[in-house]
Structure formats: C-alpha cells, structure tokens
Amino acid sequence: RLVSLPIRPEHIFHFPLGLPAFEDFKNYVFTLKPDTRPFMFMNAIEPAGLSFVCVDPFLVHPRYAPRIGAADLEFLRVSSMEDILLMGIVTVRPDVRDTTVNLQGPLAINMKTSIGKQVICDGQTYSVRHRIWDAIETMRTHETLRGRRSAAACR
Fold this sequence. Notes:
By secondary structure, the protein is an alpha+beta fold. Strands 1, 2, 3, 4, 5, 6, 7, 8 and 9 form a nine-stranded antiparallel sheet that branches. The chain contains three helices and nine strands. Helix content is 21%, strand content 25%. A hairpin with a 4-residue loop joins strand 7 and strand 8 (115-118). The longest helix has 22 residues, at 133-154.
C-alpha cells in the first residue's frame, strides 16, 4: 500500500549525476519499513514510482572494506569518512534466494551535505552480484535468538 507522506527538504538526498541509466533523476528520499528490514527503499522524488531497493553492504558482507577514490570524496565534499553512508543497490529476483547486491558500485552519501553518488570501489573487485540470502537468513536467525533470550530473561 502506498502512502503519501510530506517530504521535508532536509530528507532529500541529491545525486548531481543521477545514477547510471537514470541520469535525469537526481533527488531521492529513503524509506525504511519494519516489515522489510534490513532493506530500505530509495525513492525518486520525480518521477513517482521510481524506486531502488537498498541494503547496508556491511550487513551482507562482514569483511566489506571498500575504498572510495579521492575524486569521489572531493565530489561528495567529504571532510570526514564518518560522514559517509554506504548503501548497496539490490536486485530482487523471482526466487528471493537469488537476490543480489552490487558491492563494487555502492551508493556513497555524505550525510552532512546530503550529496550522493554511485561510486566504483577504488582498485578493488567486489562482486556486482553478491548473493545475500544466506547473510539475511543468518542475521534474522540471530535476531530471533536474541529476542528469545531477552524474553526468557524477563520471565
């Protein structure tokens, strides 16, 4: 079900170059729903309906250590690496166990300036189709076990 929510300017992230194959669409908001965790949605302001599924790449690849090139950091106006949020664009397949994330070309977003860009990891060769089903299942199993332990401790 689609719900229209007011969008405040501070919630808009600007991708000056757009995304590859979507260069004309530059402004996005991210939405997160509890029932689709750990996925979030990167929704274009215009046109309505253009949306990308994203995930925190560190959740699905614990040893993920991308390097962002100096030119990309300058483009994003980064003063501290702590200001950068990385997200991976997900490709959802008919069989969800075949769902993948692009780790070689993550979205890099400067959270202080709200400027984003899809970058290519500098000098690295991560997969553009990293399968994530096993990592998501492991994460959900751990959350379920933590929840059971917490409930048992409260008894």
